[in-house]
uroporphyrinogen-III C-methyltransferase
Amino acid sequence: MATTGTVYLVGAGPGDPDLLTLRAARLVERARLIVHDGLVDPAILALAPASARRISVAKSRARHTLPQESINALLVREALAGRDVVRLKGGDPLVFGRGGEEAEACRAAGVPVEIVPGISAANGAAAAAQIALTHRDASSVVSFVAGQCKGLSEQDWAGLAGKGRTLVIYMGVKTAPQIAEKLMADGLAPDMPLAVIENACRPQMRVLRGPLAALPDLVEREAVNSPALIVIGEVTARADAVVAALVETAA
């Protein structure tokens, strides 16, 4: 009878292979089977042996290669067949990565799981843009929300952003108009500064700046595509002047 394999839920970080943890890099370099998301940079996949089997389970707003339940079943099936599985996820597995669901499915099937944290998309993007998510003079609270959550208009976002607070929105490109409308309806000032960080930690990274009221026009005019994060708060206006001169600045 085959020994049950282990599922490693590995955070691949925000894109740059240099930002992998040592544990993550070592697992990828010795992997025989990798199940990866679409946001995992090809340079990270290239670290794996040429003989490693690679399975893409890329998701997009309009298309899922596999539904989440099927991904869970795939991980369990491969592990029960005696294979170790490196499950690579962009950012951190437990921050909007559905790592919790996959770990629960594995544990329920008696499959050993190890979770390897990664630099989250928010941390990586903020660092690359030199935006401090917290600042003694500007922000002591940080909130992370999903911009594609169901019932967006019914969410109560009052207090998530404003003076002394930073709001980081994942997956908010397609719903930028609703996000701006919702935040202003919940009391956030239309002139609150924000930054849209596209392709963070990659050579093609862009940082676009503007006020909250201009967010929908900014996203449309600049043809912003995922992966992108929206950071809202006074901290976005404090980015180093040298960095600000090197990025695209929205009027």
User: Anything to note?
Assistant: The two ends are 65 Å apart (CA to CA).
